[in-house]
Amino acid sequence: MKQGSEGEIQKAGAKNRLVAGKRGSAGKYWQLYGLMLFPVIYFIIFKYVPMFGNILAFRKHKPGLSPFGTEWTGLRYFEMFLKDPSFWRAFLNTFILAITNLIVNFTIPIVFALLLNELTALRYKKIIQTVTYMPRFVSTVVVISMLTEILSPTSGIVNRLLADLYGMDPIFFANEPRYFRILYILTDTWQFTGWTAVIYLAAITSIEKQLYEAAMIDGANRWQQTRFITLPSILSTIMVMFIMKMGYLLGLGFEKVLLLYTPKISVVSDIIDTFVYRVGLVQSNYSYSTAVGLFGGVVGLILVVSANKISKSLTGESLY
Predict the structure, then answer these.
(1) Exposed (0-12), middle (13-18) or buried (19+): which is 255, by Cβ within 10 Å?
(2) In degrees to the nearest 10, what's the CA dihedral of 44, 48, 52, 53?
(3) Fewest C-beta atoms under 10 Å: which of 60, 248, 282, 296?
(4) Burial level of 108, CB count in 10 A (0-12/13-18/19+)?
(5) Calpha distance 209→270 (Å, rounded)
(6) Buried b (16+ CB within 10 A) or exposed e, 128-148
């Protein structure tokens, strides 16, 4: 009996120490918990609360009445946009632009990080990294304004060079459908390559130096070291970034497309986001636009889950 009582006392004491340790840890890092509070509030207010508005996809909305609709309509609005040629044109434009942008601007930051890692001059490496990192802090409005000035048919430097060197007539690049996707992708490349490359550089710097030393002893050149050591070592980071990219595949930069938008190029620049904007805010058909937006969200969810499963089966790496 005495031994049993002592055992119970020890267990109770260990439990009390564990609870006290947890309380002490929470009190010790209260500043970090305080900083975490603001992002949590942001996501609750701007990400989770708006989800309740998706009910409008199944209810008829009348201005001046309930913001959640007045009567149930079932799948009426889904049937409407699935039969709407304008929606399918916007969906096709979104898909083409998203896939092209993914191929180009998912690959370039990886290649750029690998090339930047090969620089031995630390000073130049930092300068290049800073110069390519800074465009991320330039707003989309400023980027499009700069692009408009550079490509202006009257005073733009590009048209002046074409006229001086080749005698070409001015080209209104921003108003030509064939140039829209190129301009969109190139501005994304300029603005986000350095920012994204930082993530890959951080993964590269965590690779053990002994692996490279062993490879050099075995006679591996720089390309072989990159192929058999660097790329496999950062594969998990690449796959996580790929899965996250897939989640935003259909969520292209609405502001950039809207700023580049002109009636002449609408045949290629009208995407799902601009379609939702036009139907919802311009035409005040909130239920219809909500149904289209919900459809895009479901497609994005399917893409994330599919990319995660494919990544897990092929490489063993996944986001969850």
Answers:
(1) middle
(2) 100
(3) 282
(4) middle
(5) 49
(6) bbeebeebeeeebeebbeebe
Residue 281 in tokens = 């805010």
pTM of the prediction? 0.82
Q: What stretch(es) of the chain map to CATH 1.10.3720.10?
A: 77-315
Q: Are 179 and 193 in contact (CB under 8 A)?
A: no
The tokens 């009348």 sit on which residue? Answer: 62
**Dihedral of the CA atoms 57, 249, 253, 290 (nearest 10)?**
0
Residues 172, 153 contacting (CB under 8 angstroms): yes
Distance CA 279, CA 288 (A): 7
Question: What pLDDT shows up at residue 284?
Answer: 83
217-238 pLDDT per residue, tens: 888 888 899 989 999 999 888 9
Mean predicted confidence (pLDDT) in 182-207: 92
The tokens of 277 are what? Answer: 């904007």
CB atoms within 10 A of CB 56: 24
Cα R_g (the chain), whole angstroms: 27
**Phi, psi values for residue 278, rounded to 5°:** -65, -45
CB 159 within 8 A of CB 151: yes
pLDDT at 251 over 80: no
* Yes or no: domain 77-315 corresponds to CATH 1.10.1130.10: no
pLDDT at residue 1 in the model: 45
List helix spans (H) across 206-271: 209-217, 222-225, 231-233, 235-247, 254-260, 266-269
